[in-house]
Amino acid sequence: MRRRTGWRTVWLSLFLSSVSLAAAFPALVRLPRRDPASSPTLPQALFSHRVHANFVCAACHPATFPQALLAFTHEDMRAGRYCGRCHDGGTAFAIEGARCESCHAGPR
Length: 108
What we know:
Elements: H1 7-23, E1 28-31, E2 45-48, H2 74-78
Antiparallel strand pairs: 1-2
């Protein structure tokens, strides 16, 4: 007799795999600057996986962000790449006009 896999089992396995994947990634990530001398008074941008937890990992990885540190610029974001994919004023607050401290937080 063949046993059927119910939706509960599927959802449970998806949930457990996403939890184990999330545990493998750091909660906070300092984003490196492409040009470190460009803004010496501002700390590197700080990305929080927890703040973005309402999205599944596949919403950003690997299409928007490879799972490795990379440096990018505000020009890249204004062009809709990296953070700018969602931080466009529609999906999330726009990068243009945002307080620098919204992303550039903490020690340098």
